[in-house]
Amino acid sequence: MTGPRSVLHLTKPRPPGEIGGADLHALDLACAQASRGLDVTVVSFGNPHYSAMLRERHLDVIEVNSESMRTWYRIASHAAASRGSEIVHSHGYRADMVAAAMRWGTYRGERKRPGFVMSIHGFIRISAAFRALTYLDERCLKAADVIIATSSREAQRLAARGHGHVLFVPNGIQHTRPPLGGCLSEHVGVDHGHVVAFIGRMSPEKRPDLVLSMASLLAADYPDMVFLLIGTGPMSKALPRLAARLGVAGQVRFAGLRYDAVQLLHEVDILVCPSDTEGTPRVVIEAMVAGVPVVATRVGGLPDLVTNGVTGILVEPGSAEALAAAVHTLITDPDTARALSEAATHAGRRFTVDRMERQVADAYAEAKRLAEAVT
To answer: In 1, 8, 119, 136, which residue has its Cα 20 to 30 A from 346's Cα atom?
Structure first.
């Protein structure tokens, strides 16, 4: 049996003005697959800017400017049939729902069908609405031939719940050369003191509010410290008001969405990842490769990336005090910070897009085998 030659990706990117790690993951994966000779098509539900990013990378894109799940299902089913897709690979809650509808609707009872692969980029359970979506998504996972989880804990949990073929595939990044320097000063206006950065979506599960609470605990002792927050999201308007209430507005910089975040990262002193839920976040890998010490919470796939006390510092989630203590340690003990960053640089080099793509190719081969098996 030969491996699949064509794949149809289904994705619901973040709204215009935002970009998520799962969005960048799907983009990098699709590009790597296309460069290896696969016939790749991406069906993108919304966000014309994301579709433009895909097209700039010479990918075949079907942009669906509708909020109707029925429309998504119809277009995705037609795309799979017209292109002869051997794999349908969905990314995230709503994309998984469309894929499950295809598996149980379009291909119900058919012997010849694509293999279905669903990627779990991290479940969110911060509200009743997200808990409901998570519940529905776990039901939809039953339609997958193979499930890809970006954290080993999630892979183990799903396997224990009876999902048959679950693979752990950590995220990978494109490793680039470091910039010449001066990006923070030129583009963000930060040119002094220690820089502690948060880079991610400004949403409740990512806990950017904890970065500000942490800042309030450190600001008095480190008056030259700058807390840099890069990203956009539903909390973007509330966070500056919180910084003002906490009395740290003068030491906080909100840089918004920046496509040069990786370049800026090379010039910060510490990256903080205070999330309540995560897969294997790209920004943490990027920080490790850049030699930036990481302070992260012990959730999701973060322990798959960061070994506490060896390649970074892990703390329990939800504690601004724990984050502040870890940052204080790295600032006051430069030898420890240097040792962590050197070990992290070496460890981070393992997480490449090429390695990720090869592991996904194994998942596709298994999904194709299952789809072709006589039942």
So the answer is: 119
